[in-house]
Predict the 3D structure of the following.
Amino acid sequence: MDRKRTLSRRAFLRLALLSGIAAGAGIIYQRTESVGLGNYLRWMARGGAARFFAPKARVALAACATYDADVLGALRGAWQSANMPALRGARVVLKPNLVDFVSGAPCFTHPRVTQAMIHVARELGARTIVVAEGTTFRRDVRAILDATGYSEMLARERVEFVDLNYDDLVTMPLAGGYTGLKTLFVARTIADADVLISIAKLKTHHWTQISASIKNLFGIVPGVKYGWPKNTLHIRGIPAFLAELADSLPTRAGAVVDGIVGMQGDGPLFGSAVASGALVVGADLVAVDATCARLMGFDPAQIDYLNFAAWAGIGAMDASRIELVGESLTRLARVYARPPQVE
Amino acid sequence: MFFDPNFPLTTSAGRGTLKPMSNPETFLLQSQNADGGWGYRVGGTSFVEPTAAVLLALRGRNDAAESRARAWLLSLQRTDGGWGIAVADDESGWMTAWAVRALADFAPARDAVARGAQWLTAQAGLRVDDPAALAQARELFQIDAAIVGWGWQPGDASWVHPTALAILALAAAGQSDHARVREGVRYLYDRAVSSGGWNIGNPRMLDKPIPATIQDTAVALLALRAASVTSDAWQVAKGIEYLCDAVARAQTCAELAWGILALRAWSADVGDALARLDALQRADGSWEGNPFVTAIAAQSQT
């Protein structure tokens, strides 16, 4: 006799529950396999706590139409309103983006912006000020300093330049564990600083979509160890590595982003100029970069390294968690041409 | 560290001023660290690269200093045969090539050199075998990613500078016929910029040519010379052409020194580059107050 087997309601619910648990476990395993469940839960918990309990990040926007305008005045005003780290008595390292010099492409931080930051740091009583960079493509930074106008500016300001690629080394413990690395060499100048200011360029980038204050931190790791173009760090995953850098800095940090003339399209080197007329200033580097993304017409949630950093609680990305002060974002926003997509 | 000429010669480890001197050798001897090595600046941490470069520059001029430098280098050789970049580095990497090259002529270091060379020949940049990845590399960078040179660290992709240094080291160790050297030469040929010269190792990025640089071109040409290739190859001929032109416009000590060194290796005309390099020498005998740059500049003059 053919007996039809039927599933009772209770059995069906049990089966559904078990399937749900199995599916959830599968998803968690998939997402945590490479980093470990403990790490994943730690990052998720910190991110959740930050979203609910952390105060809003403050980011200041300033309008400055050209490099011949009052850059210092614009920067000074933005700095004062952005809850920036105290500089009195501090050893301050200013880290511009000097990735390279490409004729006609505004791919580097303009020296006028770095010069203005030198003046602001002096006004605020910094004990020492150095400008420092570890370039990505060329071993000899002097040619870049000459071509970009930095040699002349630094001599005029009598400010020392430190080539971070050749500095003494310090082992920096990595707070996050996002890349699987436990430590990283960084330049001693960075480790010994009280405050590090990432003076970045507002631009697009073919690996990360945008390049602003956090991507600029690539320059603090020494070329003598990681080579040129520091590719071994890219291999470990750019979003994870950028999160490591932003999360593990051995010093207080702040950001100033040069968007007076930004760069669109084929970044980080070969894009074209966009007159954004903007300076972006803040102490939460994730919030600064999220604001930069919005200034360029990007959705920050679509940018992997920002999404990851915000999820892990390194900083604020959502507009609701960022208090914008100063100039209106809407007025300064432009739609930048997208970089070529490279998988 | 960048020092404005108007500033006193300083170091990050401790501010100090050196007594005026007149020749590079004196500067190099005075800037040797107590451990026997040299840093990239006076008083800075000893690194393998500047120590090896200074040894190559001194070559028999001061037995005591050279002996201490060799002892320091030998003490840093790791059990796998390679060298890290400095005492603090516990991983062998690209500076192995500098150590092998600097010790190659020193008979008591024969075993150390052989182990270093063995470490080098066992290393290769990331090898790409997947047809789709090879096609993508061809499309994005216009390179043949199946040809492997050397990376900066184990696990890295191949790049021009460490590849050239490895070829120079293996040639100095008497292994210029090694299969890895031949592949390294093929790698350098593949990565040459079509308009002449080399950069880090990407002749193009997407649809854009990436310009050559003096230092990468110089070290590539030195390596090809050491590997006994001829100037018939277009990569060599155009590389020399690029370098002659670039050195004629170069302003920095490092670019001039590397450029002269490579052009002289190929018996090419250096124009007034030597005079311009001389003009940049400081009263203390150094270039830029930097033992590494001074060592390269000193080698370029001989």
Remarks:
- Residues 1-21 of chain B have pLDDT under 50 and may be disordered.
- The CA atoms of residues 24 and 286 of chain B lie 5 Å apart.
